[in-house]
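To assess whether the prediction recovers the assembly geometry, we first specified each molecular entity separately, as shown.
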Amino acid sequence: MRRRLSTEPERTEINVSPLIDLVFILLIFFIVATSFVNEVGITPKHKDTASSSSNLEEPLAFDLPASGQLLQDGMVIGLEQVAPLVRSNTADKAPSVLVRVSPGARAGLATQVMDQAMLAGAQAVKLSPLAQ
Amino acid sequence: MRARNRLIETTDTDAINVSPLIDVVFILLIFFIVSATFVTLPGVEVTRPQAVTGKALEKNAVIFALSADNEIKYAGSTVQLEEIPGLVEQASKDKGKPVVIQVDQWADASMLAKMVAQARKKSIDVSIATRKPRA
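The predicted structure of the complete assembly is given in tokenized form:
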């Protein structure tokens, strides 16, 4: 009786320990669940064929047959020749490039061709699969 | 006066003041809640092709992977080509999330082209993950 009387006016604080426990658990959950995905990549944009103005001129086409070569207009070229070809073919405006891939061609090579074309300033790069 | 104060302090409030600690923890908690983007990873590690024009991509994206043995991976399982538009729509929830395709450089290019075509049905922004070439 005497004891309660003596403690009551002083101990009016809320016990925050469960709150802290909960907040710590939430904090640890979010630290663990946060995945910082830092991806770099290329975004080949191309106009959809609905607009009729885009097919006025023939896009510069590169072919990737299953043999692993890179062809442009029937001739075997190297990867380093892609950028000059794109630049020279359409000097005045933003060129569009078509990359036609056959089954069996490497995705790495196709990506590198697109990369080189975009390096040369190609605005629209389309990747299209060829049938067998 | 001073002696009396000290006496009270040592007898009654002998607990550590935790309010600043709680403040800091709350701030950390809010930071992690805000920065949390729950992306579902494809669950396969691929060798990305090298590209010089690679730019940093949107973090909050729908990620697909094309492994070296030409399997399409999404959220840890193998999916079919025809399932891609549905999965993109489901994951994007009308918010128009971009799509990122992690492609192995030894994978089939026509498969990649088909994946890009499928993903473009539901998303305007389809990217191919690359890596920076070593200088």
